[in-house]
Specification:
Structural class: alpha+beta
Shape: globular
């Protein structure tokens, strides 16, 4: 019986084991499938990245403003409503100015300004300013957002929303920064500093020869008044109540149209004073802008938001723009459907035998599927305003088998020849009439035509004579700038991309394809970017020292670190842990090698304050955003309003308070005697070491009268045992 039971138990165990083995094999099989899916998803994510959800819009031009697109070496006239991307260049000539919008932020260019984007995506806006004046108003700056302006001798980063003005001289050696509101951090080659609200700072020179001065706020000039008027116009726009301020171009809708309440679509906008037979996407031209591809550039001064967000609806012969739900907007190059199939072009004479291209605007509820490569989540976000994405499978939309509402609207379908399309000619001047019957027979091919771009497509119009075109001087255009954020590589030249674009007409290159062409760019000459190495605060050479007024209070003429003594040692901290004889808001600064403050001749530890807090240094001389000051308080992190500490007025030689600093480990302080006159470094040698010396004479012997005798305890301390002190005292040689 036992044997039988044992055998039965063994059989049952084998059965259980075999069952568990099968389950384990099934689990491993499922695990391998999931792992393969994750690897495939990860590889596909690495292979390409979604295009940015925002662009910059050139929305105002006055005077001669020229433009050089990324990847092209030709300059042309700038056009309103042109989307700007990284490596695009702008130049405003004499008595000229321009305005850009980037989300809710505005960027305005004064005369003789060289402007470009080194980098531009959803969280980074890196501007290169080689010369001229910028007025920047930032209304929103998230914790992950970076707004940086790189000039020839300094890199400036906005730490919070505000109003900023940055000017660079014609020779590139002076940068003026004025803050009416906000907070900025400046970084040059080896040093960093802060610019506070209601301050104006001038930065002269480069590197160790650089000087910084805080001056009074200059009175507003004509450019400032124009910028403030534009700000008031943006703030008063009623469109902000119907669309988010991140919808680029909302500020122009009120001046050129009316808002109405529709029972079907909610709040809609209709343009006023349009020509008879007007239709969307008819008055403008097509341009090739990567990474999106074919992009619509409208001629109307209001023609940006209604053509890159929302949808168009025709009601009783009248066109309305439907912005849709108030959600985070995602930029689209053109919300249209292109025709491609069928024999509709055979009934229309385009001339030249090149065939034609036709398109019409999408209506509310119709899904836009990008022709460029994106993730499904990106497509859902792009259609979230006007499409119920929860009821639509975005990844499986057959755009060729959908009934489009605007396809049968008279005048909604626009057609041009392929040559006119690729040469970016004005659509209204070269459009071919398409009747309702022909329009109904058009088969939709997708959101982009199968047409390869040309050089004229990137420029935005046909090549014209550029000998008299206004452009920045060669010395300005080739001037390097200081960059704190490492910018991405330069754009691949269009001539290097053109052959691959011809193999897949109508589709922009993804990131993996661009990387394969990158070696061709490395061989090309490129603009030098000087990195701003954040090695800590370094005292620049300063020809002007802080002077003292007749009232005995220091006059803040130059922003400089704490003054040092005649032998070049760092300043000794006072009893509350603040640096002695400071002029600005900053704590005591270390020298260029990051040595701690005031060590003894025997290499003893740094002298600490009465609270026992050691003098704060960084072993490599770098600045830490989260470092603590001598009072133990944590510095305010980025994007938070810092607590402004007013400088404490200190007499040139304040009398001793009679308080003796506490010595760590009961090590007695060593008084450093002044060096002989022949051993003192000259002023030129001290300047080469980038150490600012104090003009005050060394402390006289009578100062020691206020010093207590050796081993004298403090008021709150108990007297140590003399026998113990005698025992611990080192033997004399």
């Amino acid at each position: 019986m036992k044997q039988t039971g044992w055998r039965a138990t063994r059989v049952n165990a084998n059965r259980v084991g075999s069952s568990n083995g099968r389950k384990w094999n099934q689990m491993k099989h499922k695990l391998f499938i999931c792992l393969g899916f994750l690897l495939a998803t990860g590889l596909s994510t690495v292979a390409f990245a979604d295009p940015p959800e925002r662009v910059a819009r050139l929305n105002f031009i006055q005077g001669d403003v020229t433009f050089r697109p990324a990847g092209i070496d030709e300059w042309t006239d700038a056009t309103v409503n042109r989307p700007l991307i990284a490596d695009d260049e702008l130049w405003t000539d004499l008595d000229s100015k321009a305005e850009l919008h980037l989300g809710s932020s505005s960027i305005r260019l004064g005369a003789l300004t060289s402007f470009s984007f080194l980098a531009l995506d959803d969280h980074l806006a890196q501007i290169r300013l080689r010369q001229g004046t910028l007025d920047i108003r930032i209304q929103r700056l998230g914790e992950e957002d970076t707004f940086e302006i790189d000039a020839p001798n300094v890199s400036l980063s906005a730490l919070r929303p505000g109003s900023y003005r940055i000017s660079v001289s014609a020779d590139g050696e002076r940068t003026e920064v004025t803050l009416r509101s906000g907070e900025m951090e400046g970084t040059s080659e080896g040093s960093a500093f802060a610019v506070h609200p209601h301050e104006s700072m001038t930065v002269d020179g480069y590197g160790g020869d650089q000087t910084r001065r805080i001056v009074d706020l200059p009175p507003p000039d004509g450019f400032d008044r124009w910028c403030r008027d534009r700000d008031l116009r943006d703030d008063r726009a009623a469109a902000a109540a119907h669309v988010p301020r991140e919808v680029i171009g909302y500020e122009d809708l009120d001046d050129f149209g009316v808002w109405e309440r529709s029972p079907q679509y909610g709040w809609v906008w209709a343009p006023r004073a349009v020509v008879a037979g007007w239709a969307p996407y008819h008055f403008g031209h097509w341009a090739w802008i990567e990474p999106w591809g074919w992009t619509w550039v409208d001629d109307a001064p209001w023609g940006f938001a209604p053509f890159h967000y929302g949808r168009w609806a025709a009601v009783s012969g009248r066109w309305f723009w439907v912005p849709g739900a108030v959600v985070h907007p995602v930029y689209a190059p053109a919300l249209v459907a292109f025709a491609g199939g069928g024999h509709w072009s055979a009934s229309i004479s385009f001339g030249g035998g090149s065939g034609g291209v036709a398109w019409f605007a999408l209506a509310p509820g119709e899904v836009y599927v990008p022709a460029y490569r994106v993730r499904p989540a990106y497509t859902r976000a792009m259609n979230a305003q006007v499409v119920n994405v929860t009821n639509i499978n975005i990844t499986n939309v057959n755009v060729t088998n959908i009934h489009y509402a605007n396809q049968n609207v008279p005048g909604a379908v626009t057609a041009v020849s392929r040559e006119d399309f690729t040469r970016a000619r004005s659509v209204a001047q070269v459009a071919v009439a398409v009747n309702v019957k022909t329009a109904a027979s058009i088969q939709v091919a997708g959101s982009a035509p199968a047409v390869a771009p040309q050089t004229a497509s990137v420029l935005g119009h046909s090549a014209i004579a550029t000998s008299r075109m206004a452009r920045p001087p060669a010395a300005v255009f080739e001037r390097p700038v200081v960059a704190k954020t490492t910018p991405p590589p330069a754009a691949v030249p269009f001539v290097a991309r053109q052959q691959i674009l011809a193999e897949h007409p109508g589709r922009a290159l993804d990131q993996s394809e661009v990387q394969k062409l990158r070696p061709m760019v490395e061989a090309q000459p490129k603009v030098v970017i000087r990195p701003a190495l954040r090695t800590g605060f370094v005292a620049p050479k300063q020809p002007v020292q802080p002077t003292t007024s007749t009232a005995g209070k220091p006059v803040q003429s130059v922003v400089s670190p704490a003054l040092t003594n005649t032998v070049g040692n760092p300043a000794v901290t006072n009893t509350v842990g603040r640096p002695a004889n400071t002029v600005g808001r900053r704590p005591a600064l270390t020298n260029t090698v990051g040595n701690p403050a005031l060590t003894t001749t025997a290499g003893s530890p740094a002298i600490t304050t009465t609270a026992g807090s050691p003098a704060i240094t960084n072993t490599v001389g770098r600045i830490n955003r989260q470092a603590t000051d001598t009072s133990g308080q944590t510095r305010v992190p980025r994007h938070e309003v810092p607590t402004l500490i007013k400088p404490q007025p200190v007499a040139p030689n304040p009398p001793s308070t009679g308080t003796v600093p506490t010595i760590e480990k009961s090590i007695k302080p060593v008084v450093i005697a002044p060096k002989p006159a022949n051993d003192v470094k000259t002023l030129d040698e001290q300047q080469r070491r980038r150490v600012v010396t104090n003009t005050a004479p060394p402390p006289k012997t009578e100062v020691k009268k206020d010093q207590p005798k050796k081993d004298q305890p403090k008021k709150d301390e108990k007297k140590d045992d003399p026998k113990k002190d005698k025992k611990d005292e080192p033997k004399k040689d």
